[in-house]
Amino acid sequence: MFETIELPMWFVVIAAVFAAIAALERALIPSVRWFFRRRMQRVVSRLNARLDRPIEPFKLARRHDMIQRLLYHPDVMQAVNDHARREDIPENVAFQQARKYAREIVPSFSATVYFTVASTIARFLSETLYRVRIGRFEDVLSGLDPKATVVFVMNHRSNMDYVLVTYLASKRSALSYAVGEWARIWPISVLIRAMGAFFIRRKSRGLLYRRVLARYVQMATQGGVTQAVFPEGGLSLDGRLAPPRLGFLNYVIFGWEPQARDVIFVPVSINYDRVLEDYILLAAGKRGQRRFGANISVIARFMAQQFWLWLTGRYKRLGYAAVHFGRPVSLSDFHGREGAISSPVLAREIMAQVEAGIPVLPVPLISLILIQKAPLRALELNAAFVAVMQAVEPEYLPATPDAWTEAAEAGVLNLIQRKLIVHDAGRYIITDKGKSVLPYYAASLSHISKLLSK
Question: Quick check: 451 and 374 in contact, CB under 8 A?
Answer without folding.
Answer: no
